[in-house]
Amino acid sequence: EALGATADVRIVPVAADKAEALIAKYPYYAVDTIPAGTYGLESEVPTVSVLAMLATTTDLPEEVAYGITKAIYANTDKISHAKGSLIKAETALNGVGIEVHPGAQKFFDEQ
Question: 60-91: b or e for each residue (b if 16 or more CB lie within 10 Å)?
Fold first, then answer.
């Protein structure tokens, strides 16, 4: 939104078929919507967004990775980001194209 305060910003909608083609090729993208009122928009605009993930080294002990993962999913109600309500264990691994840490995988296997 800071950019919109200093420059003229035009948000270009992403057509549904283009979004689906992108997601088919790169599954870490997701269909999303920019809400009305954001960037001064009068109406919502369809777009794509990138799924987020945390990364670590293989040196992180399994019990630590497990504990971090468990803490995140036990406290999703406290995440204040606008997309916080979308953080769910059952969809967390969607589009992940790299190996999941054994500690995190242990948590997801328990779900």
Answer: eeeeebbebbbebbeeeeeeeeeeeeebebee
